[in-house]
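Got a spare moment? Tell me how you read both lines of this record:
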Amino acid sequence: MSAQRTILIVEDEPAILENYSDALRREGYTVAPFLSAAPALRSCRARLPDLVVLDVRLDGDSEAGFDLCRELRALSRTLPIIFLTARDSELDVVSGLRLGADDYLTKDATLGHVLARVAALFRRVDAFRNADEPAEVVVRGALRLDTARVQATWDGAPVPLTVTEYWLVDALARRPGHVKSREQLMQEANVLVDDATITSHVKRIRRKFQSLDPGFRGIETVYGLGYRWTERTRQC
């Protein structure tokens, strides 16, 4: 299955690019390596890969990776995107996730860990594309989740969730009122990330719903325990 998948990787250090590209090829993926952002974007506009791995600093520009992520997310809201970078500040992590990345890894992560995160993203995509599974719709008040289309709507308006964000909302909304720890969310949503990344995703999800409904209160934080979907989805 992995042999049919193309991973586009953008990294401006040739040795690092070759190292990660070789590791991905050994897993059976087809790799499209790029040393700079512009040709990578042209390639994606011609044909989207199955997943993108990119650095934040590209072409001598400390923000080029963020700009590329924004462009890629405009092309597809469901394209899996992973940042793999030496920049590890909380601000950088939050910025990357806010722009629509599904995951953010630093280069001190082992190759095995990177490959595991790639595989986890593909498992989520597979769950939505499995033709053997009947289409399912989950309705919770104003919320409607359509697994066949990987689409969430709120009062009929589309909520532009990424694949990761959709999975997290689905995991919470299936059992309203039940508290899900970050670890449980990772298991049920098939997400392999750290606690801080889950927190950043939840904040971003809330902002997306609140942009449609300023009174949205559907995701409640239960301090010290995790999160839950509440039936009281609007501010009274």
